[in-house]
Amino acid sequence: MALAAAVLLGLAPGRALSGDAPAADPYERILEEFRKKVETADVDRAVGAVQLLDPANERSMPELVRVLKARHWRVRGAGIEALSKVPPGPLRSEMRLHLVTGDDVWVREGMAYAMAIGPVPGDAEALAGAMDDKEWRVRRTASRALGEIVS
Question: In whole angstroms, what is the distance from residue 100 CA to residue 108 CA?
């Protein structure tokens, strides 16, 4: 009977049913799948991996920032689209911090573009601060994002 219950619950035979081991975090499985798929030369597979991430989950932010740093332009685009869906709150504040103080130009430009696609209250101040960026690409994207927000 215990073996049948283990099979029905998806547990490996021999694993205790009494809760000896904590249940695996479902989002951890998604992150593992993302890490497996994103490290590939197949761009379509890497884009699919980025689409697995939940932008509202705080554990996605480091992965999305990493995608902006060193990936194919289509994969970065998927990362920007995911970042545009980050809701207002601490994660959006982290995005603004990356925009203004980040050390990587691709990350700063990606954050500005994400704010243009899906602006939330408070983004305009960070974008205005990015107008002093040393890289022209970041300034250009920030100015376009401000234009999207204002119009």
Answer: 7
